[in-house]
Fold this sequence. Notes:
alpha/beta, eight-stranded parallel β-sheet
Amino acid sequence: MAIARPAWLANPWKQNPWFESVAVAQERARKRLPKPVYMALVAGSERGQTVANNQAAFAELGFAPHVVGAKADRRMSRTVLGQDVSLPVIISPTGVQAVHPDGEVAVARAAASRGTVMGLSNFASKSVEEVVAANPSTFFQMYWTGNRETMVERMERARAAGAQGLIATTDWSFSVGRDWGSPEIPERVNLKAIVRNSPAMALKFSWWWSFLRTRRVPDLTAPNLAARGATKGPTFFGAYYEWMTTPPPQWEDIAWVASTWQQMSGKPFVLKGVTRIDDAKRAVDAGVDAISVSNHGGNNLDGTPPTIRLIRGIAEAVGGEITVLFDGGIRRGSDVVKALALGADAVMIGRAYLWGLGANGQAGVENVLDILRSGIDSTLSGLGVQSIDELTHEHLIIPEGFDLHLGRK
Ligand SMILES: Cc1cc2nc3c(=O)[nH]c(=O)nc-3n(C[C@H](O)[C@H](O)[C@H](O)COP(=O)(O)O)c2cc1C
């Protein structure tokens, strides 16, 4: 049970916890979180070209609004891979983060309260059972790690817990080294790690208090990768080692994992990380139900182009056959409208909700989803559009040469 904050600890400078944009949430998270935790969310790789360009490319696209003729009754709900969502934004899976004591459960609750899907990473700090209990509309994400037997065990566990879909992420390139330095992540949070990290952790009272009041320390294990019968999952580094030493998947492996999941669960299979048209077509041939056009938010091969430049070509090539999701750089409702107008069926968000979680826990994630909802709504209003179903690229101002068609024959 949580301990109530004593009156003498009340913060006289406490601000209104509501924030008006994802950028404000990020700034609040930066101030509130210990630096290594904040930097783990910034992520990115090498010189950070892709992570920066993902966001910057959205600013190259424009709108031409109408002065009269907005529709009063605007709609943004949709069915995505069998799930009815109240807005076309779903939670992208992100790995174990010592951001908040409730971690992925807080995110799942926020997604449920705002009527959308939770994507749960296999590197998450909470179990798939707890997360599905918080949001029955959960998709479980797997990296290609372990052997086929362990993968079947993990899929079986997710199915039994009630996961409504499986996302396989295969774009990770194990790049090491960032020009701005990587945060030091301890193997375990124990007294030694606390003392060692104390300069970075000092003065972050409100963050420490959120853990102290639940009598927990940040959990850096991966419970969804626990061996059958084990009570605890491996540490993050143990899990990473298994992943690094697993031979990378080939297309026949994708066909195998897709059909294994589909047969055991009857639920959809998503391949996350597609950036090329030829790969999107191969994914269709391998039997996937959906792809996510994604460059892992700039965390894989630095120099991969921004995904918003890639979505139109890929959606035109395979959108008639499978569901096409999009992620990378979404920070506002108008970004969501741009991705949909270029052919995405729905978008996934990563850092946007992590900033909300870091700033204000579950309420912060709800706040982010509300910002995106109201931004989508005001963009539809400005465009004079009643429903997201009407959006096309003609609603956008697209500079010449904006779209890239990687792997187009
Ligand atoms: C800190 C962090 C951890 C992530 N962990 C995972 C993960 O475990 N599995 C996965 O499929 N993608 C992971 N991603 C990628 C996200 O799912 C998503 O593709 C990306 O964040 C989208 O870009 P955005 O952050 O600009 O929205 C991670 C991203 C970040 C920033």
